[in-house]
Design goal:
There is one protein chain. By secondary structure, the protein is of the alpha/beta class. The protein has 3 domains: 62 residues, no CATH class; 123 residues, Fumarase C, Chain B, domain 1 (Orthogonal Bundle), CATH 1.10.275.40; 216 residues, P-loop containing nucleotide triphosphate hydrolases (Rossmann fold, 3-Layer(aba) Sandwich), CATH 3.40.50.300. Helix content is 39%, strand content 13%. The protein is built from 14 helices and 12 strands. The strands form 3 sheets. It has a 6-stranded parallel beta sheet with strand order 7-12-11-8-10-9, with helices on both faces. The protein has a 4-stranded antiparallel beta sheet with strand order 2-5-4-3, sandwiched between helices.
C-alpha cells in the first residue's frame, strides 16, 4: 500500500482513505444522490395508517392526493402510458415538502407509539428526500416519469464530482478491487482521474496451474439469439460437469434465462438447485449447507451480481467450477438509454460505460468465487462470443491470458478439461 500512497501534496497529518470493493462505490454513490416518488408507495403507506386520529388521517390522505396530482401533472401533456424524461421545478414540490413536515410534526407530537417500520415516517421521508434531491443541479442529473405507479425518479448518473469533494478531506485515496478494470473507466466514475493518479495491477498470488479458464465462443446469449442457444448451453453444462464430480455454479444474466435452461437440464447424478427471485436468508443458508456437506454433487443455477456471486467464499472442494453464461448487461430500458446518452456526451463511450463495463464487473466477480486460496483448484468457463471482443477483454485480469484470447478457446474442450482434472488428482 505504501507504494501507492506518496504523501506529497501538502496534506501532512490527514488520514488516508482506503476503499475496498471500489467497483461498487460509483453505483452506491449514484443511488445516494438519486430519489424517487411513487404514488403506489404513498398509497401503501397511507393505507397502513388506520391507527391515526381523524385529523392526522385527513392530513395524510390529502397529501397523498396532492402528490398523485403533482406526479401526473409533471408530464405536461405527454402520453401517461409511456416513460418520459421530464423537467421538474423546485417550487412545484415545496408545498408537498412543507405539508409533509407539518404532518410529521403533528404525528410526532401526538403521542402515538412509533412502529418498527413506521408508515408515516416512510411517507414523509420519501417526500422530503425527493424534494431535497431537486436541489441537485447539473447535467449528471435527470428526472423521468414512469407510468407504473405512476412515479417520478431523479437519477444521478455520475457522482464523481461529489466523490472528488469527499476525497479532498484525505491525504491519499486508495481504491482497490478485483474488478476495477478498465482503469480509465473506473478512474473517471470514481472521481480519481487527476494528474496524481497512480494505477497498479497485481497478479493473482495463487498458482496459475490451479485454474483452468476457457471461453466457448460458439454460444451467443444476445437476447435475439437466446432461444436458439438454450439446447447448446444445456448440452455444454451437462458435458462439462460430468467430467468431474463436485459442486458447480452456473451464473446467468437473468432469472428468466436461468429458468429456461434449468427446465432442460438432465443431470440425475447431481442435485440441481435454482436461485429464486425473492430468496429468503434461510434458503440461501440451505444452499450453502448443501455445498459444505458434499453428500451429493450439487449444481446451483444462480444469477450474476446476486447473493451467491459476490462477497462470499467457497473454499476447497465446496466449489470446483463456475460456468458463466454470457455477460449480464443491464436491462435495455428508457432510463438506461438516458445514462448511455450522458456517458456518450461526457466520456465518448456511452455503450461500454452504461452496459459493457458494469456487466463485466459481475462476470469477474462470479469467476472469482472459484479460486480463493493457494490450495483451491477449479474450472472457469465463459460462454459467449462477446468475451472475445476487445471491449470485454479490457475488463479481465491480466493473468487470464487475454493478450491472446484465442489461447482460451479450445478445439477439444472436453479433453482439455479432463486433462486438467487428471493433473490435479492425488498421486498413488
Amino acid at each position: 500500500m505504501g507504494r501507492l500512497t506518496t504523501n506529497g501534496h501538502g496534506k501532512t497529518g490527514q488520514p488516508n482513505l482506503i476503499v475496498d470493493e471500489a467497483h461498487n462505490l460509483p453505483g452506491r454513490a449514484n443511488e445516494y444522490f438519486s430519489a424517487s416518488l411513487s404514488a403506489t408507495d404513498l398509497d401503501k403507506w397511507a393505507q397502513a395508517t388506520h391507527h391515526l386520529t381523524p385529523t392526522l388521517k385527513d392530513l395524510i390522505d390529502g397529501l397523498t392526493i396532492a402528490a398523485r396530482l403533482r406526479i401526473r401533472s409533471s408530464i405536461e401533456g405527454a402520453p401517461e402510458h409511456r416513460a418520459a424524461k421530464v423537467i421538474l421545478h423546485d417550487e412545484d414540490f415545496l408545498d408537498l415538502f412543507s405539508r409533509s413536515q407539518e404532518l410529521l410534526a403533528a404525528y410526532l407530537s401526538s403521542g402515538i407509539e412509533l412502529q418498527k417500520q413506521d408508515p408515516v415516517l416512510a411517507f414523509c421521508n420519501a417526500i422530503a428526500n425527493f424534494a431535497q434531491s431537486l436541489a441537485n443541479k447539473g447535467e449528471e442529473f435527470f428526472c423521468t416519469y414512469t407510468p407504473e405507479g405512476p412515479s417520478l425518479k431523479i437519477t444521478c448518473c455520475d457522482a464523481s464530482s461529489s466523490l472528488r469533494e469527499s476525497y479532498a478531506q484525505f491525504a491519499n485515496t486508495v481504491a482497490f478491487s478485483a474488478t476495477i478494470k478498465p482503469f480509465d473507466y473506473y478512474a473517471k466514475i470514481l472521481g480519481v482521474d487527476g494528474e496524481d493518479l497512480t494505477t497498479a495491477e497485481f497478479l493473482s498470488p495463487f498458482p496459475k496451474a490451479h485454474r483452468k479458464l476457457l471461453i466457448i465462443p460458439q454460444v451467443s446469449t444476445r437476447l435475439k439469439d437466446r432461444a436458439g442457444n438454450y439446447d447448446k448451453i444445456k448440452a455444454a453444462i451437462e458435458r462439462i460437469v460430468r467430467l468431474r464430480s463436485g459442486n458447480y455454479f452456473v451464473f446467468f444474466p437473468s432469472f428468466d434465462f436461468l429458468y429456461k435452461v434449468a427446465q432442460k437440464l438432465e443431470l440425475p447424478d447431481f442435485e440441481v438447485l435454482c436461485q429464486s427471485r425473492e430468496m429468503r436468508r434461510e434458503h440461501v443458508d440451505q444452499f450453502m449447507e448443501k455445498l459444505r456437506s458434499r453428500e451429493k454433487p450439487t449444481l446451483i443455477m444462480a444469477v450474476q451480481g446476486g447473493v451467491f456471486a459476490e462477497g462470499v467464499d467457497y473454499p476447497g472442494e465446496m466449489l470446483i467450477g463456475a460456468l458463466i453464461v454470457g455477460p449480464a448487461l443491464p436491462t435495455f430500458d428508457f432510463e438506461r438509454e438516458l445514462l448511455r446518452e450522458y456517458y456518450d456526451s461526457k466520456y465518448g463511450n456511452g455503450f461500454d460505460y452504461a452496459y459493457t463495463f458494469p456487466a463485466m464487473a459481475k462476470v469477474i466477480q462470479s469467476a472469482g468465487r472459484v479460486i480463493r486460496s493457494g490450495t483451491d483448484r477449479g474450472l472457469i468457463v465463459l460462454m459467449d462470443r462477446r468475451f472475445m471482443h476487445d471491449n470485454y477483454l479490457r475488463s479481465m485480469p491480466a493473468d487470464w491470458g487475454t493478450d491472446d484470447p484465442k489461447t482460451l478457446v479450445s478445439g477439444k474442450i472436453l479433453s482439455d478439461i479432463e486433462t486438467f482434472w487428471k493433473s490435479h488428482e492425488p498421486g498413488p
